[in-house]
Amino acid sequence: MQSQVTLSNFNPQINLQRGAGRLKETVWYLIKMMFFLSSFPYPNSLKAGLLRLFGAKVGKRLVLKPRVNILFPWKLEIGDHAWIGEETFLLNFEKKERWKINP
Question: Is the pTM of this model over 0.85?
Answer without folding.
Answer: no
